[in-house]
Amino acid sequence: MTAPGTPPPLTPDDVRTVGTPVDGRVPDVAPESAWDDRRLHYDLVAPANRRKFTVIVVGTGLAGAGAAAALGELGYQVECFTIHDAPRRAHSVAAQGGINAARARKVDNDSVHRFVKDTVKGGDFRGREADAYRLGQESVRVIDHMNAIGAPFAREYGGALATRSFGGVQVSRTYYTRGQTGQQLQVAGANALLRQVAAGTVTLHTRQEMLDVVVADGRAQGVVVRDLVTGEVRAVTAHAVVLATGGYGNIYCKSTLARNSNATAAWRAHRRGAHFANPAFVQFHPTALPLMSQWQSKTILMSESLRNDGRIWVPVRADDDRAPGDIPEEERDYYLERRYPTFGNLTPRDVASRAARERIDAGYGVGPLKNAVYLDFADAVQRLGRATVVSRYSNLFHMYEQATGDDPLRTPMRIAPGAHFAMGGLWSDYDLMTSVPGLFVGGEVGWGYHGANRLGANSLLSACVDGWFTLPYAVPGYLAPLLGTPRLAADDAAVLDALEAVRARTERLLKNDGTQGPDRFHRRLGEILYRCAGVTRTPEGLAQGIVEIRALREEFWRDVRVLGEGAALNQELERAGRVADYLEMAELLCVDGLDRDESCGAHFRADHQTPDGEALRDDAAWCRVSAWESPAPDAADGRFVRHDEPLTFQAVPLQTRNYA
Amino acid sequence: MAVPTSTRPEPDRVPAVERPSAGPQPQPATWVLKVVMAVTGTVFALFVVVHLVGNLKVFLGPEEFDGYAHWLQRDLLAPLVPHGWFIWIFRSTLLTCLVAHVWAAVVLRHRARVARGPHRRQGLRSFRSFQARSMLVTGVVLLFFVVFHVLDLTTGTRPAATGEFVAGQAYANLVSSFQRPAVAAFYVLAIGTLFLHLAHGLWSVVNDLGATGRRLRAIGAAVAGAVGLLVLVGNLLIPVAVLTGVVA
Amino acid sequence: MKLTLDVWRQPDAASPGAFETYVVTDATAEMTLLELLDRLNDQLVEDGREPVAFESDCREGICGCCGVDVDGRPHGPQANTPSCEQHVRSFADGDRVVLEPLRAAAFPVVKDLVVDRSALDRVVQAGGHVAVDAGTAPDADAARIGHETAETALDFAACIGCGACVAACPNGSASLFTGAKLTHLATLPQTRTERGRRAVDMVAQMEHDFGPCSTYGECAVVCPAGIPLSAIAAVGKERMRAFLRGRTG
To answer: Where is the composition biased (Pro residues) (chain A) (predicted)?
Structure first.
């Protein structure tokens, strides 16, 4: 890749410095007691005083709607913002498979401890143990609550809640509502939010995009939002701000995320001082649909539950052009079953994605673009009968047929890894507070729980636990000492400064005299990231990515064209702002990948693998979180600063993941 | 290209952006009007079925037919009510239902138009939609027909009635009326219209009165269609019989 | 594949709108309807013309954001399929396709193909929720709920809130939407408690913005979630039940 005369590849030292460590403020007790201990020590706000506090919640997904509704129920004044026209549209709606809960009712030997073990081990020991305990402990109440507010969980014929098992675990702890678990939970949560709107505790602001955080006196005290319909930019102040704005997977352009999911709120908060944890930890979902054409807008996600009954294979021979039905059994390579006989097709996502990528890159890919592997239900149909298989997956089969025109029971599905979930996110301490006091995170925008790889059905859970059962404790704990402090004045210098920054940036985008729309830059950024920071990474590739991203960013600001005006609905302007943020964030993503000199979970570095091609962690050097600080855009030394949070493990001792 | 910004002083609560607002329920409530439509419509449906039974007595000959007419006019429910009273109770009930049905229909149709807005729904293809869309038209046709029908065969008012109209001679009046091809044609048109109106109306009754169960809905759909067809075929037999000379 | 698109352009709610005609020459059969619009917009931006505003998000038929009227039919030619899953293969080379926003008085146009569907949320806000605060719920396994009951509730809870039912209705009625919510919450024992109040409040709010149902049945034809037509009967059923039994039950 390096032509003569060009500088040598970037090294970590070229792009970052190491700063002071950060403290996660985890209670100094055994991890299983941490949450009890912390709740005992939170300050309280008396019921009559609660309405004196205003809390801003940005985002109305499972975490945002839950936090806003729960804080409203407690009596706080909540200002809730969403970019959507309705709270129910948030991308939590799209999760299909289910929600884990350590209720451990069955006799399959599940328990909270086992849940923690699966979560921590699944995350390859790069998340906090105490966080995972809270996740498991509160999971019981999450199911009870979501059931009570209307989520019609699947039931056994006897009337008990039904469960199924999911990738990466050997017990059955995943609760579900057909293939629409996310939708049912999301709608229930959004309806609970609307109940508070009706009650007057929550003011809901739809079609408003958060473009900046107001930080005054070292505390987050407001946000700047743009009304997407009128274009009006205004600031809203409060005593605390909760960001629940989702993950940044769309940075890869073609991802399983919704089109409007974006990283702008998180990135703007980062720019105001919130550290960004482990941005390189992005999960590639093994069962996404492969790209089939240039204009395909996303890689549609097929639920991982398909792997319960489907068998994944590629031809034994590379570049085999035969139709799948013409390839005899002995010429098929069921590579997951071959490499991981214990878990087989149910290996965790990162393992399955990497194995698929490895086969595709080695020339065994199938489909017209040779960019997929087969997921075959022929055996399941033989074993269970067609009717049973159809009843389990009918909506997924229907979705697949809609998208591809193929009947998955006649020809095997074609699947490929697609960018999916961001384990990385804004760094927060045990109380979900970022490095900016008063700025909290909930759900995927944060970094918690999942380490370097998220287990299936843990994302809905983490969003619910954050929103319904963590932030309602933690936010009041922060607010209590502020009793008597007025809301920040609307004409405070910090407010005016943030407003001016947003206004200037918007104007700059609109006035730029370029030739290319923002979508084109986004597509090119996605190509760079899939190539340089995809399923498998190399130091050279990541360094190359940094160089290309810098060049693309420079080209963006030179040549982007944003048609339309600022004082109206302008989707091009929205996209341009988001792509501009991706172009900054992508560099940090590559820097983190280049810096983290090990393989762990979804972050697989080709230079750190076992002879069998498994991820090789370096616990001595890297058993820690990288919480990043970005240089100011005009700084002379444009290097990122890494702050470390060391991780220790008591309940689940460090061990090598082994799914063979 | 300017980006409007606002630093207006913060009120205690940040007002949500103005969007179309909530407001009071229209009066009388739409669901009440729907119930009125359904109940009065059901009364009419029962009426046309009983009317058909009476009509078919034409095939039993003049004595049976005229005797039945006389019984309806004079003797039904007597001596519970004095002779001749029933028919007026009956007529006033039907008239009340008619007024309520037409009033509710007009109010609902107005609300429907307002709720739809200026852009009409395009591209309706199904028979069900044709029926639903034509309910007002079929209703108006039926209203005209009812007026004509009463003038022709009840009051004997010319020119709706023939010159030979004799009060009490129901059979003869019927035959002489249907011997006019134009009247027979209008009658056939009206019966066809009645079928469209009745079949869809009854299906709407099933829905408006809250039949949600699968079996109940299936039965309701079948009954709606069957009653419509029965009334269509049964009533068409009569002008056909008169014009072909079977009834004379 | 060449398609001629008549697209509704309207700068904002206050201004009048009109159709503009565009030609896409390189459409392919596997494109979705919305990818066709993406393609058109890319071309428009290249020509220095403002792209067509339209809504979409998940593009896999679950968020309910998308919804355009295709040749007078909400979402597009294929029944029970959202716009994001309508494919160009439904059209023939050389076809002329008319694209409009979802039409209803309760859905004012925001811009081009984007409409404001907040009237649907107001129906939910009026009563489509359950008065249980966080942390106060009983054990979800304590009440036995039959498999069939849960499945029935889910059939109606599947509504994605896209508003196509309203746009499909010549009367601008939201009966399918409201009935789906009422049925979902009336079917499950744990949410049945507020049944009467919910019916009174939701129907009142629905009637404020939306028209009466005339049993066209068009709503169920376009509904991407396949909500059964019986949902419209639930509106009358639940409302009459509340009238006969009082608001509480």
So the answer is: 1-11
DSSP secondary structure letters along A242-276: EE-----GGGGSSBSS-TT--SHHHHHHHHTT--E
Picking from A433, A455, A482, the residue at the C-terminal end of a domain is A482
Q: Is pLDDT at A372 greater than 70 in this prediction?
A: yes
Residue C142 token pair:
């304590």
Annotated catalytic residue within A349, A414, A575, A624: A349
A458 occurs within a structural domain: yes
Distance set, CA A194 to CA A63, A608, C124, C129, C157 (Å) = 15, 49, 7, 8, 17
Mean pLDDT of chain B: 90
- Give the max Cα distance, chain B: 92
User: Is the same domain home to A262 and A321?
Assistant: no
The partner residue sitting opposite A203, judged by closest CB among B2, B7, B13, is B13
Query: Are A539 and A615 within one domain?
Result: yes
Residues of A in Cβ contact (< 8 Å) with C128 = 191, 194
Cβ neighbourhood burial of A621 (10 Å; 0-12, 13-18, 19+)? exposed
Residue A554 lies in a domain: yes
Q: What is the CATH number of the domain that holds A356?
A: 3.90.700.10
CB A168 within 8 A of CB A118: yes
Task: Give the domain extent around A318.
Answer: 286-419
CB within 8 Å: B119 and C237: no
- Give the count of domains, chain A: 3
* CATH at residue A577: 1.20.58.100
Please tell me which of the candidates C124, C136, C150 has its beta carbon nearest to residue A194. Answer: C124
- Is there a contact between B1 and A503 if contact means CB atoms under 8 Å apart? no
d(CA A261, CA A578): 10
* CATH code at position A229: 3.50.50.60
Q: Looking at residues C77-101, what average pLDDT do you find?
A: 96
Please name each of the domains of chain B with its CATH number: 30-116+127-243 (1.20.1300.10)
Pair (A120, A264) in one structural domain = yes
List, in order of start, the domains of chain C with CATH numbers: 3-111 (3.10.20.30), 118-245 (1.10.1060.10)
The interface residues of chain B toward chain C in range 181-240, judged by CB-CB distance below 8 A, are 200, 203-204, 206-214, 217
Per-residue pLDDT, averaged over C5-27, amounts to 95
**Residues A147-158, mean pLDDT to the nearest whole number:** 96
Domain shared by A111 and A241, yes or no? yes
Which residues of chain C have a CB within 8 Å of the CB of B209?
233, 236-237, 240
Alpha carbon dihedral A615, A118, A392, C148, in 10-degree steps, equals -170
Q: Same domain for A321 and A346?
A: yes
Residue of chain C whose alpha carbon sits nearest to that of B117? C105
Q: What is the pLDDT of residues A255-285, one digit of tens each?
A: 999 999 999 999 999 999 999 999 999 999 9
ipTM at complex level? 0.97
Average pLDDT over residues A53-80: 98
Neighbours of chain B (3+ CB pairs under 8 A): A, C
C114-115/C109-111 β-pairing: antiparallel
- List of chain A residues whose C-beta atoms are within 8 Å of the C-beta of residue B7: 234-235, 490-491, 495-496, 499
Q: Are residues A264 and A303 in the same domain?
A: no
Residue A425 domain-assigned (yes or no): yes
Is the pLDDT at B107 greater than 90, yes or no? yes
For residue A34, tell me if it sits in a domain: no
Of the candidates C33, C25, C18, the residue with the CA atom closest to the CA atom of residue C2: C25
- Residue pairs between chains A and B whose CB atoms are closer than 8 Å: 66
pTM of the model: 0.94
Active site residue A575: no
The residues near C28 (Cβ < 8 Å, ≥ 6 apart) are A293, A295, C1, C88
Q: Say if residue A235 is in the same domain as residue A319.
A: no
Partner residue facing B4 (CB), from A203, A231, A487:
A231
Query: For residue A165, what pLDDT is reported?
Result: 84
State pLDDT tens for residues C129-157.
999 999 999 999 999 999 999 999 999 99
